[in-house]
Amino acid sequence: MTKLLKQGFNWIDSRFPLSSFWRKNFAEYYAPKNLNFWYYFGAFSLLVLANQIITGIWMSMFYIPTGNEAFSSVENTMRYVNLGWLIRYMHSTGASAFFVVIYLHIYRCIMYGSYRKPRELLWLIGVVLYILLMAEAYTGYVLPWGQMSFWASRVISAIIMAIPFIGGPLAVWFIGDYSVSSVTLHRFFSYHATGIPLIILLVVLFHLMALRKVGSNNPDGIEIKDKLDASGKPLDGIPFHPYFVVKDLVGIVVFIFICALIIFYFPTFGGLFIEPENYVPSNPLKTPLHIAPAWYLAPFYAILRAIPNKLFGIIALASSIAVLFVLPWLDKSPVKSIRYKGTLSKIALTLFVISFIGLGYFGTQPVDDTGVWISRIFTVIYFLFFLLMPFYTRREKTKLPPERVTQKKLFNWD
């Protein structure tokens, strides 16, 4: 039996690069030995992506993308399909989990300077992937065709129409009609189920290819390829398999346990993952008292609302995402990691995180004067983090990074 299996493996391996792929990307891929807690989230994002694809295929089997039947098809899946409620909650919770791990993944990249040379292209591909995920999440958010889904799609179409010169034709092309309708729903279903996921998978492949080319960064922000042993292997690196494979599996078990707790006991997460209005069929004649996007898009919605002029609000919203593309060239610090940067960088990063979370909170709240003014303050802080980066990173006093990687405690920046 063993001999037969070995012959079968050799037959496949001579026709398909299975063993060479494994050796190159896992067994002989050397990663820094000091990767810490923050490096879990890349593996988590791949796990959640797989969950979204599998549960999405299952949901699409029972979903009817028409204005009259979309809402009832989702409710029927929840009530009458075996384990349909579980699949739906796995998909809706998976969407929120996706953005949780992506935001923590981005935060780690900013904290340890993973956007700096030679990883600029890796960062740019990641930003493209982030925008695609936002588009995928938005089109999926509309599909249940509840009150919040319907009116959120109306808000987005109104935003697109406000763009000078091309706004009207662009909105018609995007939603497929002169106003949000059943045609829009069918089009969004096509975007969500086929078009955008295929592009996301391709970009994820590019992201991983770029990562394997330049190698992983580490909490010290120093290159392990600069210190090699006699055989040409990094002195501060260890094989990805079995060390980090086992490490990631431990984290994945904990992550699945937390997700399971939410799915089984807090599937709507107090209205944050699924709003109460989305359990009400869409009604074009009745506007909800408060229209808010999903929580993961709320920071950018708050920036839009913080600007009194609609056109400038759209520009600010687009700029808040576009500025991520130039981040690698804004950081002028001689060191990469926050561990060795100066006080100004640590204060700026802390304020940036506070402003982003604050914008997210006020983006989900009803509009009032206090909230708008606080959102404006947070918006200014958000942009100043990027715009002032060339100055404070150039002028501040930094520490000298070590020659070799070090082991640091979690949350210890000193």
Q: Main sheet: which strands, in order across?
A: 1-2
What's the number of extended β-strand segments?
2
Strand content: under 5%
Mean pLDDT across residues: 92
- Structural classification: mainly alpha
Largest sheet descriptor = 2 strands, antiparallel
Q: What letter string, H or E per element, gives the SSE order?
A: HHEHHHHHHHEHHHHHHH
Distance between the termini: 57 Å
Which of globular, elongated, flat, extended, rod-shaped describes the shape?
globular
**CA radius of gyration:** 23 Å
Low-confidence parts lasting 5 or more residues at pLDDT below 50?
none
Helix content: 55-70%
* Discrete helix count: 16
Please characterize this protein's 3D structure:
The chain has helices at 2-13, 18-27, 41-60, 70-80, 84-112, 120-142, 147-161, 167-175, 182-214, 240-265, 298-306, 310-322, 327-330, 343-363, 369-387, 389-395, and strands at 30-32, 237-239. Helix 4 (70-80) packs across helix 5, helix 11 packs across helix 12 and helix 11 packs across helix 15. The protein is an all-alpha fold and 414 residues long. The radius of gyration is 23 Å and the shape is globular. It has a two-stranded antiparallel sheet. The relative contact order is 0.13.
